Amino acid sequence: MKKIIIAALLVITTATAPAQVNRTQALINAALKGWDIELRMGYNLGGTSPMPLPEEIRKIDSYSPGLPLSLEANFIKRFDTYKKWGLLFGVKVETKAMETKATVKNYGMEIIGDDGSRVAGRWTGGVQTNVENYYLTFPVLGTYRVHPRTNIKAGVFMSYVMRRKFNGYVYEGYLRNGDPTGEKTSFTDGQTASYDFSDNLRRFQWGAQVGVDWQAFKHLKLYADLTWGLNDIFKNDFKTITFSMYPIYVNLGVGYAF
């Protein structure tokens, strides 16, 4: 008897499984009616910089972007009959990073001594800066299909900084304690002094975003987005660096359209 019951249950399950799958797929299709979904992976190329460069920064000696990657899911709602206009909502986990060396004069600085003490003033000489911030980003963009395979997008993004890093060291120069006329402390012959402004970075950042994507195949897209931060990366009460700095990056990558 038990064998008969088990056999009957297997037959019923086998018979109803395709119907259950079809019902689930139908529910998903109904929920997503009028929506396009895409997953994207990209690379952020750019930097965190004042615009324009202030007179304190005399020369950029070197630049390296590091390995700042992004993973993103986008949901696009089409409005008109021809599906030209739409609204995109996205969620993205990304890194924005760079390493630079620059020659500066009277650059606001707070160095950390070997005993942990801090001395603030104006630095003249070389500065290495390391930036590596991890973001949870939410773009909201209007989209327009200019060609069956090409979309242009524009809007805003909002980011929460999950992990903050803005540090480096100074070398081959001198620090004027307090202001440009203060006591002079020199660092030469390979001497360096570190600094760390990571805790002074604000958690919330926002800005403008524009971009374009091209559908190379049925499901594969290539894209390029420019993001430009519009609020200073540092908190309002941070006065050591005397000018505002903004993250400006181009995100290049590939996407899969469902």
From TrEMBL:
Span of domain Outer membrane protein beta-barrel: 19-234
InterPro entries attached to this UniProt entry: Beta-barrel_OMP_2 (IPR025665)
Keywords for the protein's UniProt record, in alphabetical order: Signal
Protein name, as recorded: PorT family protein
Keyword Signal annotated: yes
Signal peptide, first to last residue: 1-19
Pfam entry (one): OMP_b-brl_2
Keyword flag Signal: yes
